Automatic annotation (TrEMBL):
<comment type="function">
    <text>Forms part of the polypeptide exit tunnel.</text>
</comment>
<keyword id="KW-0689">Ribosomal protein</keyword>
<comment type="function">
    <text>One of the primary rRNA binding proteins, this protein initially binds near the 5'-end of the 23S rRNA. It is important during the early stages of 50S assembly. It makes multiple contacts with different domains of the 23S rRNA in the assembled 50S subunit and ribosome.</text>
</comment>
<comment type="subunit">
    <text>Part of the 50S ribosomal subunit.</text>
</comment>
<dbReference type="GO" id="GO:0005840">
    <property type="term" value="C:ribosome"/>
</dbReference>
<keyword id="KW-0694">RNA-binding</keyword>
<dbReference type="InterPro" id="IPR013005">
    <property type="entry name" value="Ribosomal_uL4-like"/>
</dbReference>
<keyword id="KW-0699">rRNA-binding</keyword>
<protein>
    <recommendedName>
        <fullName>Large ribosomal subunit protein uL4</fullName>
    </recommendedName>
</protein>
<keyword id="KW-0687">Ribonucleoprotein</keyword>
<comment type="similarity">
    <text>Belongs to the universal ribosomal protein uL4 family.</text>
</comment>
<dbReference type="GO" id="GO:0003735">
    <property type="term" value="F:structural constituent of ribosome"/>
</dbReference>
<dbReference type="Pfam" id="PF00573">
    <property type="entry name" value="Ribosomal_L4"/>
</dbReference>
<dbReference type="InterPro" id="IPR023574">
    <property type="entry name" value="Ribosomal_uL4_dom_sf"/>
</dbReference>
<dbReference type="GO" id="GO:0006412">
    <property type="term" value="P:translation"/>
</dbReference>
<dbReference type="InterPro" id="IPR002136">
    <property type="entry name" value="Ribosomal_uL4"/>
</dbReference>
<feature type="region of interest" description="Disordered">
    <location>
        <begin position="44"/>
        <end position="96"/>
    </location>
</feature>
Amino acid sequence: MTSLDVLDAKGKKAGTVELPASVFDVQTNVPLIHQVVTAQLAAARQGTHKTKGRGEVSGSGSKPFKQKGTGRARQGSIRMPQHRGGGIVHGPVPRSYAQRTPKKMIAAALLGVISDRARGERLHIVDGFGTVNGAPSTKAAAELLASLNGGHGVTRNVLVVLERGDEAAEKSVRNLKDLHVLYADQLNAYDVVVSDDIVFTKAAYESFVASKTKEAGE
């Protein structure tokens, strides 16, 4: 178990928290993470694509010309696929792309990728996001993010993890560019993979660790 500094609104050290090895020092299984992320992206597809077959397109059902004597290939309907405006052969139909992924695989992928961010020193914990006299402040939140990584600031893609009900923090960061906000119980492998830096509020961190410790105990 290692520790990580907790920063205040000014980017100064305000304490430390312990990083349980069972959560933040898990082996990163790349094929597993790829499988889980692929399944998550597949489940996000709407699957509402649809083309019309020959029985669904509009047009006369009568024979376009007589069977014999014209020198042309015999035709039975102008709605057949070879005609302009005809039906589509073997076109897409509405379907679900969801893949069944066991909960233990999903949990292992999340711990593996967040452990990778922790080992790469891309995990940060703050007391809270800037408020001025208790009111949300986007400027204060931006200044706090700029103070991370020894004053070099965070990289382009940032994932901020909040505790549910923390409306002041959510309002402070939601308009910042290249930043994605999730609640602790929404954290998933895909959003961690596509983010360079992960920033927890202390309350969100404690909630996340408590839930993962409980799952491990079960």
